[in-house]
Design goal:
about 400 residues, mainly alpha, 11 strands, about 10% strand
Length: about 400
Amino acid sequence: MFDLEKLREKREEILKAELAAWLHDVGKLSEEFIEEHSKEQGKGDKWHHELVLRRILRRIEKKFNKSWQNITKDEVLKWMVEEFSVNIPSEKRGRPFPNPHRREFPNKLDSYLSRDPATGNEIVRRKLVEVAKQISYEARINSQFFVESFYEFCENAKITIYDETISIADIIEQHGDPIEAQSKLVKLFKPPSCDGIDSSMDKGFAESIQKDRTFISKAFGHEKFFLRHLNCLRKILSSKFNFAPQNYYLYRKNIKSILKRIFSRALGETRRGANDVTLWDHSYSVGALYKSLIAWIVLRRSEIPEVTEFLDSGGQWKGNLWRLLSIRTDGLSYFLSASSIPDMLARKEILQDAWNKVQKLLEEIYPLGLEVYRDENGSVFVVPDLDVLELTNST
């Protein structure tokens, strides 16, 4: 038997995990993302949507109380020495420490460190070079990509499941290729886990497209050019996160509505063949999978499992941890038996209210899953792969 009270106790954590999944691709809400994934991309620098929080640069800026453009190479050197407790000379054999503002900074640093016994250690050198790469990538992102409150919200919104704590910022930064996941909770999110499962279903075969011919498509092929003012929409969205993370439960309905409205005007995949997948479609689906997976862990495990438990020998996801929960009634007959139009409208409102209460019960009060379909006969939810008849309330 599985005690639903465990879900109630972990409600805030599960709902913040759901929000992290909804926000993981927020960097795609940008004109830079469209440009990066166009045919003519390749002429400029790589732009990583995962690094839009500029976490390393913001730490350096905070330490020296100045913008990145005004940070000197000596200050970057000082930060590296203190951050990683390693001795790095400011000059070696007449060669100065590389300029962190130059595009070739990672390669230059790699060469610079390999000649010094103190930092010639392969593990240390590799770590410092990876940090240099992240600095180089983050320097290409606008320092005002979001309003200030959004950066703070993502860093302060902590998700604690058993002995592990991550932030929403960890999910955003580590869900892709540039930064390696540091925790089991993030590894259970990033490909080939929840994010990868939904992405592979969404995209199928898709080809490259021109940035100035990027469309949002309907399921039946109608295309409408709608990818405008994305940067403005992003600023509007990020300004809504001006509340304390511990109060998120009170704001969930409003934040969900705002995310749906704005993310529906951006693409999760720019290429034709998959450009009917809006950013909201993808983010919402990933949220359903990740939220249900966290609920499964809370109900069935006493610790967070390793992601390798659910992967085959080829590193692909093999676990089946989800199912669809369908809650249905004969709503159509209920409508058709109405004696008048006012009676039919009243019945419609009664049914709608009933389904809304079911949705609140399963999504918020006992956060088991997420509604993915609704019609006049009821709702369908993505939930953990559990026998729902074994779910009880100990109180």
